[in-house]
From TrEMBL:
The lineage of its organism: Eukaryota, Viridiplantae, Streptophyta, Embryophyta, Tracheophyta. This is Desiccation-related protein PCC13-62. It comes from Olea europaea subsp. europaea. Keywords: Signal. Residues 1-24 form the signal peptide. The keyword Signal applies.
Amino acid sequence: MALSISADALKPLFLLLLLVYCLGSSTVLSVESDAEKLPKSDVDLVEFPLNLEYLEAEFFSWGAFGQGLDKLAPSLARGGPPPIGAKQADLSPIVKDIVAQFAYQEFGHLRAIDKTVPGFPRPLLNLSSSTFATFMNDAFGIALDPPFDPYADDINYLLASYVLPYVGLTGYVGTNPKLLSPTARGLVAGLLGVEAGQDAVIRALLYERALVKVLPYGFTVAEFTDKISDLRNELGKAGLKDEGLIVPPALGAEGKISGNVLAGDEFSLSYGRTPEEILRIVYASGKENKPGGFYPKGAGGKIAKSYLE
Ligand SMILES: *[C@@H]1O[C@H](CO)[C@@H](O)[C@H](O)[C@H]1NC(C)=O
């Protein structure tokens, strides 16, 4: 008797627990089915930028902390091989602090993409000084002597960084109109906002130093950015989508100003790039089917792999 009374008394509590449990698991199920409901083309387009997010996560994390995903957030690497040649950069406290924030932002981006699409393991990344040195030599059309070292100091690291988030930014701008689902569009808009912000911070820090000579070379910071942007335009093979920090006024905002702290088209809208254009640039080969540069074995995901077969 006493037992049945106390069981009755527990019934409402039991029902409540059951309800909470069901609500909890149905939320999880509905998140999963949202991801499954993404059209296949959205899944491929949202997975592609993982390549750049992995690259930026490792470059910024190593630059600021001297450690990458394998130490700081191992599950995010998903068993991919460790990057080649990444190291801690010799940075001033303020730049180091900013780069540390970028690193954690990239970790967040990896989590956000992983949450939405199946994703793929970190591809092999070549972040050795010589990858950047080769990129700069190609940009200037001469062998810089000594070879450019991205990890040497603030200016060099910021110039090396100038190479990365902007490419991600143009990718997100190019992807957005192709997405079919609100889930994918919302994610890409959120990623684009922060990538664009990172690019703006890098450009603003460099703009303050635009006329400073990059030592021991005779070229200014602005000249480096012009050359890097020219090279990306050339590799992308899709016209003008990249502009340095100081441009002929015709290329500035409203065709009226040569300071170019942000890049934009004739209406000051961000340029967009296709995955093919991005692969040509980050492979440094000008060919979406010829890996190299930052991705010695090619990028991951269906879109990039389709060119490797
Ligand atoms: C990394 O890049 C440098 C410069 O291009 C190259 O010399 C080196 O062989 C690359 N490493 C791998 C494993 O691809």
